[in-house]
Specification:
Layout: E1 3-4, E2 19-23, E3 26-30, H1 48-59, E4 61-64, E5 73-74, H2 77-102, H3 107-118, H4 137-140, H5 149-165, H6 173-196, H7 201-211, H8 218-222, H9 246-255, H10 260-265, H11 274-281, H12 288-298, H13 304-317, E6 334-337
Parallel strand pairs: 1-2, 4-6
Antiparallel strand pairs: 2-3, 4-5
Length: about 350
């Protein structure tokens, strides 16, 4: 355990587990996983503000120093807000994972719901996109969204539960729909791993934890704070996937900045039977090589090419035209005075 002295020179720090902080007889313990700074060896040289920020992140409070060398206010806003959002996001994923596990038959329609909410994006006008407008009755009732009401109803129920424990306001449908797609995809990835393990769930989950793509969701998870549209997106922006030709599908994907590769990897989002969809897509010479590539990838233990490309594509799709509010779902921290801390 390394003692930390407060010196005037600012430096980047990483406090060791349960590092002891000392300042004129004042000591407090912090856990290393509550913050991330750089290592300075056995002696760490934090500024006073550094320490207040770290302590604020550790206890989830705003620290108000009122006397002596700590006569300043440190809000630790960025660290506290990140922690608040991360904890809320984790709870959302748990809720959605449970709901989807209990209604796994709705996975195909949840994926189409997320795709169709996002595919209203118009590159020329920068309008539409994954803004939750598909929840509105004029839009969910359109022909291209036929059969998606049950999945939307499931998410409405999940939203009620999520809103009941949210401390930073209700979750937007725009966020909810995209995170439901994430949970649905993870379920398909895990199910595939279980199948490769002869149906043994514990071994399949372990296989996915070791070789799967769970660590590839970082950028997707940071895009958290979409706002809901108050009106339906314009009609005519999405084809009926079950009636569209491959050429029409390609043209739509190209219109939003994608191509044959992204069309192929998104095959699970285009209909209830992925293999049948891929067979149809393979009739196009531009799409066929990518379909075959991802089919080969799904036969491997890790499915790396398929899963990574699919996550990358969904991450881009799920933010088209959206201004992310990176302070969404945060809330004012409690305030404490250092003089009242029991140290």
């Amino acid at each position: 355990m390394a003692a930390v002295s407060f010196l005037s020179a600012p430096t980047l720090l990483r406090f060791r587990p349960r590092s002891l902080l000392k300042q004129r007889g004042v000591c407090c313990y912090l856990k290393a996983d509550d913050f991330a700074l750089a290592d300075a060896g056995e002696r760490c040289l934090p500024t006073r503000r550094d320490v207040l920020k770290c302590l604020g992140a550790a206890v989830g409070m705003e620290l108000v120093a009122t006397s002596g060398p700590f006569a300043e206010v440190s809000y630790a806003a960025d660290l506290i807000q990140r922690r608040q959002r991360s904890e809320f996001q984790s709870s959302i994923k748990d809720t959605l994972s449970k709901a989807i596990k209990e209604h796994s038959d709705l996975i195909p329609s949840i994926l189409i719901l997320a795709l169709n909410d996002a595919m209203t994006y118009d590159k020329a006008t920068k309008s539409g996109g994954p803004n939750g407008s598909i929840r509105l009755s004029p839009e969910i009732g359109r022909p291209e969204n036929s059969g998606l009401s049950a999945s939307l109803d499931l998410l409405v129920d999940a939203k009620k539960e999520i809103d009941s424990y949210s401390k930073g306001g209700p979750i937007s449908f725009a966020d909810l729909i995209q995170y439901a797609a994430q949970s649905a995809l993870k379920k398909t990835f895990i199910d595939s791993a279980i199948k490769k393990c002869g149906g043994k769930e514990d071994k399949g989950i372990f296989l996915y934890s070791v070789y799967g793509s769970n660590g590839q969701w970082g950028l997707f998870d940071r895009q958290f704070g979409r706002k809901d549209a108050e009106a339906p997106d314009p009609e005519g922006r999405i084809p009926q996937w079950n009636k569209a030709s491959v050429q029409e599908m390609k043209e739509k994907f190209i219109a939003i900045g994608f191509g044959p590769r992204q069309l192929a990897v998104m095959s699970a989002f285009l209909g209830p039977d992925q293999l049948a969809t891929e067979s149809f897509l393979s009739t196009d010479p531009d799409v066929r090589p990518w379909v075959e590539k991802y089919q080969r990838s799904r036969e491997t233990v890790s499915q790396t090419d398929y899963e990574v490309d699919l996550i990358t594509t969904l991450t881009k799709l799920s933010t088209l035209g959206q201004q992310i509010d990176y302070e969404a779902y945060t809330y004012p921290p409690k305030k404490i005075e250092l003089s009242k801390l029991k140290l």
